[in-house]
């Protein structure tokens, strides 16, 4: 199992035996570098059991969409299965293709293939190092395939000059999207109830214990970590955890009922949190004393991201996960701007 939409049945299965998943030296999340802010790249996973994924390029100035920019730029070639994520480093895009066990390297914004990073196992997300711009980390799942049990995963270190794996670091089960802050790489493990902490300078690892597993962590402008931990669908509610590394202080915000939160994001200025709960999108300031009770947008998004240039909100609606989904744009106050049809199972947006 590699796609987020198919993680739900895996979670329900794991709930019978225990916990389940979902629970930059600059502290602000880095904005895309090298681009003018003209483009939004939509990550389309594609069908898990058949077909291939793609990336759609949305031109905000026009606005127009190229449904499969990789095929258009590379003589009809396909990216592979499943297109999980994309990271921008300068004028280069790194497209993580989960089931195909690779990262495709493309020039931006045209999306011409320039290299392929191989030697990976069920890769999920690539994060550029904060201390060395030509180094990156890729989280990988091990074990499986779905629905067989997964084993502790790893983080592969990538030399972006050679596009080769140079070493690996063991982490927890099913590692997700890592975040950089305070000189560390924080790796959430959606199958283990802890964060793995990797010191960028030394490579040493440690852990932060959580009440339940988490697949998402972000850092705010003050260097505090915000972690969305899962429910066990039995007695434990999902929680939003605030962790201050300097003091090891934790503040817990329980979600209202035994249901799962998802899609934790933070605004480019590091001050506003966004997350999905009960098929709606919520927004919370990092200084708020309690979780919001009223959603910002009442819609069940598969992915959600914030444009670092305009502040506009981009939701992706996968609909039935087998036919083309939607890219939905909103003003920062939640007012609908427009909808655009993309491709199958859009799970997020990357800006350039």
Description:
By secondary structure, this protein is mainly beta. It has a single domain (4-305), classed as YVTN repeat-like/Quinoprotein amine dehydrogenase (Methylamine Dehydrogenase, Chain H), CATH 2.130.10. Helices cover 4% and strands 47% of the residues. It contains two helices and 27 strands. It has helices at 7-14, 69-73, and strands at 39-44, 54-59, 64-66, 83-89, 92-97, 102-107, 113-117, 123-128, 135-143, 150-159, 164-173, 179-181, 184-188, 194-199, 205-209, 214-219, 225-229, 239-244, 249-254, 261-266, 272-277, 280-285, 303-306, 313-317, 324-330, 336-344, 346-351. The strands form seven sheets. The protein has a four-stranded antiparallel sheet with strand order 3-2-1-27. It is globular. The two termini are 30 Å apart.
